[in-house]
Design a protein that fits this description.
Elements: E1 3-6, E2 11-13, H1 16-24, E3 29-32, H2 45-51, H3 53-63, E4 67-73, H4 80-88, E5 91-92, E6 97-104, E7 106-112, E8 115-121, E9 125-129, E10 134-138, E11 145-151, E12 160-161, H5 166-170
Antiparallel strand pairs: 1-2, 1-8, 3-9, 4-11, 5-12, 6-9, 6-11, 7-8, 7-10
The chain binds fe (ii) ion.
Length: about 170
């Protein structure tokens, strides 16, 4: 289950309903699905997508999403430092960024209306970052995450970096 933190206010929330309403008030959609499929660390993209097809298909049809793929990062992933750095800088996208976490941990950071907060996502967490919202993504100390990415058009997911530098104030050094 997700954990929400507001570091400047020294607040941590681990109750799903409270997190969901906090995020909803800021235009961020969050839900939790069952994620009980056992997948190996080197499971292929097709294996991961097939394991969750039953949930994914109706969700994608309802939302008009056209394509899905899998991000699978673990300790043996080549170029891990470069991947980590790419995600850690504040950016926006022209389309919603939707992730369904199936294993490991990934931490979304949001910078909305002068407020900065993070949501650590784990297996079962489904989260949609609205288009044009400033955010960044931390692979966490373990750098171990498996998540399904859902798109209307994958070309909308290109990061537009803000170069604000605000991420550096919050990101730990691993
Ligand atoms: Fe992003």
């Amino acid at each position: 289950m997700a954990v929400l933190k507001i570091p400047d206010a020294n607040v941590t929330i681990d109750n799903f309903k409270e997190i969901q309403s906090f995020l909803e008030a800021r235009g961020i959609w969050h839900d939790h699905w069952k994620a009980e499929e056992v997948l190996s660390s080197d499971a292929s993209q097709d294996e991961v997508l097939a394991a969750y097809a039953r949930e994914l298909k109706p969700f994608m049809e309802r939302g008009g999403y056209k394509t899905a793929d899998v991000i699978n990062v673990h300790a043996e992933t080549p170029n891990l430092p470069a991947i980590r750095t790419k995600f850690l800088a504040e950016h926006t996208h022209t389309e919603d960024e939707i992730r369904f976490f199936v294993d490991g941990e990934g931490i979304f950071w949001f910078h909305a209306a002068e407020e900065v907060f993070s949501v650590a996502c784990h297996a079962g967490d489904l989260l949609s970052v609205p288009a044009n919202m400033t955010h960044w993504f931390d692979l966490g100390p373990q750098a171990n995450v498996k998540a399904i990415r859902i798109f209307i058009d994958a070309s909308g997911w290109v990061p537009n970096y803000t170069d604000s530098g605000i991420d550096k104030k919050y990101n730990p050094s691993y």
